[in-house]
What does this fold into?
Amino acid sequence: MEWSTVTDWLGSHGVRILIILLMSGAFYLVLRRFVPRAVKVHVARTMKKKRKTEIEKRATTLSRVLVTTGVILIAIAALFMILSEVGINITPVVAGFGIAGIAIGFGAQSLVKDFIAGIFILIENQYSVGDVVRIADIAGIVEEINLRRTILRDLDGIVHSVPNGEIRVASNFTKEWSRVNMNISVGYGEDLDHVMEVLNRIGKEMAEEPYWSELILGAPQVLRVDAFEDSGIAIKILGETQPIKQWEVMGELRRRIKRVFDEEGIEIPWPHTKVYFGSPPPPKAPTEAPAPPRPPGEVLPPDEEGAE
It folds into this structure.
């Protein structure tokens, strides 16, 4: 009797639970397969004038958030349906979740703040996966974004998890394009016109080479004489590159500048101190003439003898 009850239950409710699980798996596969494609098509239409890399980063960011949110919703719906098939009345459960949600809402205001901030980050496209940003005084490349937090990896390889509610200012170093911004110092005795001509030539030749021409959008050129420093004169150079390529371009540019400066005999100053040695002061003249020496064998009076 008991075995027949079990078989009857499995024949009715067990099959339904299996169908629920299969449908949930199917929805998950559809979500993982078609949502990224649909998001990519939509982003490409709305960002026609943007670069391909920007479109890909935006599509990747939105796809990950939507897929993660969809998986959570599918899991919750499947759980409720299975509980209903098992015979548990889900109405009190739903009501309990509602009451618990209100209590959690009062106790976890920072969590709600994180979610709201995450929504605005995604809507405003402040940054995407693959961008180099500075948020909450931490700089690094964005590895993951969701509605609650942003994950960064800095240059040392350290992974930082930053709650979205803690982000006051988001500085994006790789939004659409990046900039070469560097100062080159030369000695005070150099001809600045000649130095600027050499720097402009280096930047132009570099931008015309096959490999670097794909990374450089605007050849690095001299902007101005930027400052009179303690040891030399600073000349500012600006240029535009593909996103996240400015550091590679600046490194190669410094290497070429050092080589050409050595060939041209242009001095690259370094901090140093000049010491001046003057002549010693003349000896001071005596204020009183010294007393003449006493003859040998001279006897002094008692009072003078005591004074001596």
